[in-house]
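### Sample
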Amino acid sequence: MFLQTVRYLLLAAILGPILVASEGIESYENYYNEIHVDDEQAEAKTRNALTSPLQRWPGNKIFYRISTDYSDQEVANVRTAMASFGEQTCVQFEEIEGSAPAGKRYVSFKKSPNMCGTRVGYQPLSFGPHEVVLNERCLTMPAVIQHETLHLLGLFHEQSRPDRDEYVQIDYDNIPRKYWSQFMAMDQTTTFNVPYDYESVMHYSKNAFAKDPAKPTIRALIGGKAVEREMGQVRGPSEGDWTKIRLMYKC
């Protein structure tokens, strides 16, 4: 199973900056980077919210640094995304330009020609900055930057919640086998009793990874019946997303 995780493809992040309204968050991310190939626990981590307090950032202030090769607009988009966490939660992101505070790990926003992603949660045994790599396309979207920030704080994708089979139905026949692991429901995590959120910025779109884009790969279960509806978005975190962070970090 670990080898399947390693084989996640470089997704549509290599495309140009033209945005399509129907695109879901999955069209921006690069899963090879998001779940690190050196992490022996990678396959076990495709869940929703980390339960271990060791994988939550210590304290509620997190320092970050932006690469000098970002354009002015890209810098502004990162700052906008980071500021939203201080406005909506008790997690404060503070930008550093000089030396990093002694003894403090920080987030480093780097630029990549074709990759977008980060490792999930605080990495207590790692050294150096926690990297978030973004290409020009991802940097045009503050919601994508917020999505990656939710990952580094400890959230996984909504459709991987352990209770997801009560709320969605996955059509594996319409999904290439190499992407099946992206749709696995996992246990050993917590949802913080936050209701399932079809509008989460962490949720895939209804047609994610579809062999036949005219047919959904994810259907909502309403009253026990599978129905087609829109889900996921790239506008920004939902109230449910913010609530999980508030509960994780004891806001």
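The radius of gyration is 17 Å. This sample (Metalloendopeptidase) is used throughout the tutorial notebook.
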